[in-house]
Write a structure and sequence with these properties.
The protein is about 35% helix and about 25% strand. The chain is α/β, with parallel strands linked by helices and about 475 residues long. It is globular, with a radius of gyration of 24 Å. The chain starts with a helix and ends with a helix.
Length: about 475
Amino acid sequence: MKLYELLGEQIKTNLSNIEISGITSDNRSPVKGGELFVCIKGKTFDGHNAAREMIEKGAAAVLVERDLGLPQQIIVTDTRKEYAYLCSRWFGSPEKKLRLIGVTGTNGKTTITTTLKNILTGFGKKVGLIGTCQNEIGDEILHTERTTPEAYELFELFDLMAKKGCEYVVMEVSSQGLEQQRLGPCRFELGAFTNLTQDHLDVHGTMENYYQAKKLLFSMTDTAVINIDDQYGVRFTKEIDCDVKTFSTKGKADFTASNASLLPSGVKYDFSDGRVTLPVSFNMPGEFNVSNSLCVVACADALGFDVNKTIGLLNCQKGVRGRAEVVPTGRDFTIICDYAHTPDAIENILSAMKASAKGRVVCLFGCGGNRDSKKRPLMAKAAQKYADFLIVTSDNPRNEDPKLIIDDILEGIDKDKTEFVTIVDRIEAINWAVQNAQKDDVIVLCGKGHEDYQILPGGVKIHLDEREEVAKALSKLKD
């Protein structure tokens, strides 16, 4: 691609219109020669410091935010912002060939995006999915590293989806992806907001910053579907400048759920859009899944799909991996695998299980290393609120000492209120939970959900699928 075509009309340069062989912002990537290197300043590394080296290795030009004295430099105000636009142009603006639907919020994104993708597929549409668990192009599953991919990977994925015939793309939009401007020129036909609770404060610093990051989605959205049971959702309706549709499980809104029944196997309620009232039966338990499924119906309705058929398709959904997922045991106790890794999410899943449990609710959980340490005691308080017994263990300790993470968690536990044990090794903790299970117990494994790995100190990544570990532990039980 020629340099001027790649830069577009907004970026000016005195360089000749040379051929560009590729674009990158990663100084560790091999340089074949002729690339445009984009210098981005991150938290731990400033790409400007590698600009001269990249030129020496063969880069044709460097995009910079300040004068580095290099004849091949192109100066712009914000290289991070421009990088996403460059990536879009490099792949021929594939986002314009797709109908984009973005879902943001702290909890519920994966359930909503996965279910909505299935609903649209049921209407005969070919749909792409971008999210925490995996990316999908129709029935094809692709690995993912981030909820919202980095700009180059994102537009490369859009390009692949468009070439393979996708009409819609449903994607989880993270606060970090928004704040780092990975979405560039994307325009969303529909954007949905679920809720906002404490998370990622290690990145954003304050809840206000976190809120403002989420708000960015609606500056690039035509129609917003907003949960007004959440205080931040109410605030969004007053501050965003696009068409707004609201949903609520508690009061008046454009889309409502009433007469909810919470069952061990799922939820039932009456859906209303002010015109019709229809019964919903969604096969995922918990009051929060009333809200999640209501959001799905609201999104489909806002996109123009028939609400009767939408609810018919919704009632046939089997659930989402790692989200209130029942792990088969063949025993007289139940094991649930859930991704809950925030105080609010833990409280939601445990309260849902408490409402239907005949025996104890046992919660196994930990907290991630190198992440918001302030929420660790809050996680303990949330778990203790509804659990009868706690098993405190490791999540992804990363480069922190897992024992010290557990010490932070224990600061939030009232030791006179709830029994608990601490077992640092998560595999041992799962085995202990199964070996000590009592009749009618509901054991909730929180934090890993869909993940099939664990990140240990030193950057060691091991295979850890909780379903497999449960099966191993069950095989050791005596009949």
